[in-house]
Structures are given as structure tokens and as C-alpha cells.
Amino acid sequence: MILDLHRQGLSVSAIARESGIDRKTVRKYIARGLEAPAYGPRKPRQAVIDPFTAYLRERVTRYPGLTGSRLFRELKNLGYGGGYTAVTDFLRDVRPAAAERGYEVRFETPPGEQAQTTPRIVWLFSMVLGFSRLIWARFVVHQDLPTVLRCHAGAFEALGGAPREVLYDRMKTAVIGEGDTGGIVYNRALVDLARQLPRQNKRQGRATVPLHSRGLLPARSFRNLEDLNAQLRHWLDTVANPRVHATTRRVVNEAFAEERAALRPLPLAPFRSVLKLERRISREGVVSVGGNFYSVPDATRRRVVEVHTLAEEVRIFEDGALIAIHPILEGRHQRHVEPGHRNIHVHKRRQILRNDEVILHGSGDRVAQRPLAFYDAVARVMAKEQRP
Question: Beta 165-168 vs 135-140: how paired, if at all?
């Protein structure tokens, strides 16, 4: 077009006005003639996600199950300012397929190079409110009745009240079985807890646990159970409960603020349901309860005592008299010894007071140490007395 207008006699300025092209461009193409323009490749622009792609590749290679939302939160903490879709689009291209992951490869290590630990199973107690979907949860190492009661009490206290109904998934701690005439038979202590709460009913149902293990546990490390629960509380406070729920389309915390007023108030007195059992005292002066050990006083006479396990403490009775109170120990093989329970010291400690005297502490006897000449003289006297 530029060349055709130029052949018609139009000036460069007129061609620029007619075509809307800069005059310099018009002169360039008039001088070039019919030579086709050549366009080089544009220099690629750096995307916002580019500085974080190496991190994403490393994470999904080591932990293929990490979700896009989990990795998006990690990138935000690292300073990423882009959108969520850019992260998921990149993950779709680099995430290894299930068939490509293959089997684990056994490897051997040289002497003194590595040690491994034995894993311990932990259980998750989770309570989810039906209206707001607010989650309260805690990791525990037991599924026994005291632990379940303690988790119930902790959940109701954190929520500031109790719902009218609690649905269970037939966990053995809550549901004992079915009655002869039908219906569900609940654990007596759990029923006692329900009776203590105003107009509280319990029925069996299907439990909903929306704790996404892929978003919480993978690629995390923790020192102990307390650290694991601290990370769980942080995850609930910053991820699970502030989120927009996929079903209700409401922010969980905002819905809970509305639901809180409808919860039943808690009783003024703490829940005191008791699980009673008998335990034999060991030679170390402790009794075993739930895999842990609790001390009894040195003055305890009976070999068998009665133990009352409450939600928050262990009480030990001898002939109906309370002789010890201990806080509940989490985990297993732990030991709690009250300082006042060990008052008798049977070991002896030798201390030299002076050259001719020794005291043996613990027996209360004082033995004088004399020169060998004294004992030799005593022996001579005894020999003379024995002669006929």
C-alpha cells in the first residue's frame, strides 16, 4: 500500500496521514522496496511465578500429594505476589503422574551413617459444627474413654458451649453395641457427660471430618505431640476455619459467630465422670494406668489400690482414703512421681568425720574406729579368760 501510494505521487507526509503510519516507517519501506519485513523473536518476559518454579518442582518431586492450595500458601509466605491459577497451571505440567512414581527403592548405608526410628500411631479427635463447619481437633495417642471425655470437655470449652446433638460413627469408645430391642447402647460415662449438659442428646450418625490430610500433614516435621498439636491449632486458626466453605459458600469463622449464640451453655461445675479400676503397686511404688505410671506414697500398706480416672486427673485410693492425685499423662511409658511420696531413704552414704570415727548414714549407728593395738590387747585378754 505504501509503495502504491508513493507511485501515485503522494508525499511521505501524505502517505503517513493516509495510512496512519509514522513518516519514518513510510520512508523505510519506500527505500526497501518490495523486500518483505523480517521480525525477530521477542525476548520472553519473566512471569511472576518464574522465581518460584524451582521450589515448586522440588516440593512436588518429594511430596507428590501436596495440594495446589497448600503450595500457594507456601509461596505467599515466600513473597509470591501472583495468582492461584498460575500455580495450579504450572503444577499441572510438572506434577509426576501416579504411574510415573514407581516403587520405593531399597538402599543400604555404610556403617555408622544412619539410624531410623520406629513410627508411633497417633489418633485425631475432631468435632465439626454442623451449621458453621467450624473444626476443633486434637491429636492423641490413646482411644480410651478418659481421652475421649477429655477431648469432649476441651472442645466444648473452646467452643464456649455445646450443640444439642453429637453424631458418632460407632467408635467403640462411644457406642458399646445394640440393645436387645433395638437402638444404640452408649458408654455410661459418655451418657453421664450428656446428662450434665443442658438438654443434650446423642445419637449415632455419620461423622464428617473435613481435615484434609494432604493440606496439613505432608512435608511437615514436629518434635513431639505438643508441637504437632500446636501446628494443628495454627492450621485451624489460619487455614481451615478462616476459609470459605465449599458447600455453604460462607466464611467458617463468620458463620460460627452467628452459631455461637445458639450453643447450649456449659454447666458451672466441671465434668467429673469417673472410671474406676483396681491396680497392683509395683516394686518401684507406682501403678500403671493407660500405659503410664503414677506413684503412691511410701507409707502405702496395701499391694492393691483403687484408681479413679477422671477427665483431667488420676486419683488413687487405699481402703477408701485418697492417697494420691496426679495429672493425666499423655503418651505412653511416662512416669509421674510426686515429691512427697518418696520420704524414706534406704541407701547409705559413708562420711569420715575424723581419723578415729566413721558414721554410716541411714542406719543411725555410730561405729568408733580404734587403732589395731587396741584390738590386739582385747584379743589377749579374751585368750587368757578362755584358759582353764
Answer: unpaired
